[in-house]
Structure formats: C-alpha cells, structure tokens
Fold these 2 entries.
Entry 1:
Amino acid sequence: MDYAILGGGALGLMAAYRLSQAGQSVMLFEQEPLAGGLAAGFRIDDIWLEKFYHHLFRSDTTAIRIIEELGLADRLAWIRPRTVSRKKTRRILIETAQLRKALGSRVATTP
Ligand SMILES: Cc1cc2nc3c(=O)[nH]c(=O)nc-3n(C[C@H](O)[C@H](O)[C@H](O)COP(=O)(O)OP(=O)(O)OC[C@H]3O[C@@H](n4cnc5c(N)ncnc54)[C@H](O)[C@@H]3O)c2cc1C
C-alpha cells in the first residue's frame, strides 16, 4: 500500500520511518524548507539553535530509545544546566540539584 503523510514534524517523520521499516511505500509532504516542525532548528553560522526550546529528561525513555535506534546515541550529552540570576553585582548560580530541593534553599554565589 502507498501512504502519504502530511507534515514532517516529529510525528510525521516517525510515522514515515515506521511505515518504511514495515516495507511500505511512503511519500511525506512538508511545507517548510526544513523538516522538524516545532522541534526544527535553524542555523546561525556553524551553530544550530532550536526554534522553540526543548528538553529531554532521562525519564523520556521512548525518545531516548528512538535516538539510540537512529544511531545518534553518541551525540546525546547529559549536561548539568545552571540557572543564573543577578542580585545587585553578584551572580547567583542555582544548581539543578539545588532547585530540586525547595527552590533556593542552597544557593551558591560567585563574586
Ligand atoms: C516552546 C515549546 C517547547 C516544547 N518543549 C517540548 C519538550 O521539551 N519536550 C517535548 O516532548 N515536546 C515539547 N514541545 C512539543 C513538541 O515540539 C511537539 O509536540 C512536537 O514537535 C509536535 O510534533 P508534530 O509532528 O505532531 O507537529 P509539528 O511539529 O507541528 O509538525 C507539523 C508539521 O506539519 C507541517 N505542515 C502543516 N501543514 C502542512 C501542509 N498543509 N502541507 C505540508 N506540511 C504541513 C508543518 O510545517 C510542520 O513541519 C514543545 C513545544 C513548544 C512550542
């Protein structure tokens, strides 16, 4: 059977991928020059940025499995993000782990 998929966002791309894995013929139509939909990126010089911010948690096991299945696991980096704010002249770094404990109960400061 031939399939036509309208939209090359995450859903359309995944549906096309699974259908083609199942030996089906798929034609995917995307109106934008770049696939990805809401999760697409754009390039500034040699840096790729997201159109909208996204995050991936270790508990997002389905997404992680798909990344592995696509052979991209070596490009997945688990970093420790910091929330930074300013109080007068001092920069205040709030570690993620600290945020987990009752917001701001342990705040590290730098000069
Ligand atoms: C600010 C923000 C933050 C988010 N953060 C997260 C996150 O952290 N984690 C998470 O899991 N999700 C997050 N999401 C949600 C996630 O981005 C979407 O759920 C997902 O990208 C939706 O994919 P989709 O394929 O269903 O739809 P879309 O991404 O909307 O894709 C639809 C595609 O169809 C195309 N299209 C539409 N009409 C036509 C047409 N007539 N002809 C051809 N092409 C057409 C569009 O151009 C688009 O590329 C976030 C979303 C936003 C806005």
Entry 2:
Amino acid sequence: MTELRWQLADDGGGQGALFDDVLERHVGSGEFRGMEFLHVNAKRIINELPQSSGLPFRYTINAYRGCSHACIFCFARPTHEYLGLNAGEDFERKIVVKVNAVERLRAELVPARWAGDPIAMGTNTDPYQRCEGKYRLTRGIVEVLGEAANPFSILTKSTLILRDLDVLIEAAARTDVHTSFSIGTLDEEVWRSSEPGTPHPRRRVEAVAKLNAAGIPCGVLVAPVLPGISDRPDQLEAVVQACVEAGATSISPIVLHLRPGVREQFMPWLERAHPELLDEYRGLYPRSYAPRVVQDRVSSIVARLVAKHGGVAPTPSRERQTPRDATPKPTGSAQLSLMPPVR
Ligand code: SF4
C-alpha cells in the first residue's frame, strides 16, 4: 500500500491532503468479492470548495473515494489517479473508506469552528454505493448533521438511501434536507450497459416517490443524457413522466460531458457498445462539453415534457446540486460524479 501516493492525494480542490496512511486493506468477500477496501483516517471530512468552483454549494462531505456503481461516464474516475490508482477497474473495485468520517464530522461541527453552512453529499462518488451497506458511514453522517440541525443535501443513484429514511425524517424535522436521484434513462439496455453497478432505474423512481411521500423533498437529475443513445424524445418522455408521477420536486437534464480522464474510459466503451456512433462523438466532443445546440435541444424537450405531464419546472437552485452528474459550467450541466476532484 505504500505505493499509493497518499501525499499527492487531494480531497478538496487543492486544500492539501486528506488522509493519513492506509490503516488496513480489506479484501472483499461474498457480495464484495473482487473488491478491496482501503481504510484511511481522514484528516478532515468537511471539504471546502474554492470560490471559483461555480457550484451551488461550498461545502461537501465524501466518505468514500471510488465507486462500485461503475458508470462508464463517471466524472469522478480521474480523481482515483491522484491516489496512484487507475480510473478504470481500480476506481470500481478499490474503494477508499474514510473510516473516521462520523467522528471527524462531530469534531468539525463544533459551533466555535463551524457556522452551520449547508453541506452537500454525493458530489463526487455515491454516498450510498454498495459498501455503505456495511460501513454505514453515510447513515452516521446524516445522524450527526441532523442532531446539529445542519442543512444538507444528498445526490445518489442508490435505493439504499431508503434504509436511512428514519434518520432522514428525524433530520428533516430539525433542518433543511434535500435529496436528488440521478436517473439518466429508463432504457433497460442503456442502463445495463453504461451503469452496470447501479440499482434498476425503475427502483430509483420508486425511491423518489417514497422519499417525497415521507416528506423528504427529492428531485431528479436526468443525467447524463447520452447523445444518440438515450436522447430520443420517447426515451426522455419515459423517464420524465415516471419522475413526475413519482412526485419529483424538480427534473433537470444534463447532457454527457467528457472531461479528460473520463474520455479515455468512455470512448473505448462506445467503440464496443455503439461503434456506429464513434465519429459522431468525436465531432460532438472536441472539448469536454457537448455543443450548446445539443444541450439546448435536450433542455427544451425535457422542459416541454415536464410541463406536459404536470411536473415542477427545473430550477437552478440547490436541489439541482449537480453533483456527480453535473457540473454547473457552461449551461449548468454536469453528470454524476459530477464535479472536479472533491470527495
Ligand atoms: S456516476 Fe455516480 S454512481 Fe456512477 S460510478 Fe460515478 S459516483 Fe458512482
């Protein structure tokens, strides 16, 4: 493990380092076979973003680095390289676990040092990825934030969030709690191919309904929309209609963007899964973001569909917290894992 470049790791946009040495390395078994969990002690757990980030939140918490959801377009993949790990299989199978996250948070929320600003989770990797089922760090964080009446938001693709409905409800009784699901498509084939480790999108829609029914506001990022793969009007209508019916408090689309480091993972996948689209994507993505005309087209379709089905119009505010799916740059888009190296 000493080969891991911890001293170079940056958990928060250049604020210096983040972990002590790896405490333990756990090889996964059973449902976690083929995975490794690298236990570290975070030096701090609340991450402050630089003012220049342009994101609608300033403070984040990320208890994990790497994500077993293994989305091929994941924006967070390159952040694994700061650790001397790779953005491909290592990102999906070698998960850094900040085992002291809850205890650090308690220490950092001391009123003398903390002003009570809103904190966003899910801004880099998924706080409810599979291993949260055994580490329960996100649950502990929600409990501590609730006890402190500190406002927070969560973006996830995982129905595991429903396990914590009890503590979310308790927290929401004391402070502002917002949740968002990322549901890029209901197309079964696209989902299986591009997000192989995530819960079925229909189960996610059900989770949106359950959260809202429980009084926890939950919006949806239709993200990322993949040009030529999941952007047909009928595909968009399926997901928008389902989310409106689930009571989503907001529905906003985000067209795929391919930053350096993500592109190297995505394009080989595209060549295998949709070779006929290779040239089109090369033309669409000379840079990280799809052309404005493509983004405007998708936004327009989704806005029309939301109105058609009686949903709540997209808002640029905190519910659209952009996280892993989104980066608020050019047009306020991003894609899960959404942002620059943060978690
Ligand atoms: S996009 Fe989100 S859910 Fe998918 S691998 Fe990245 S962090 Fe995990």
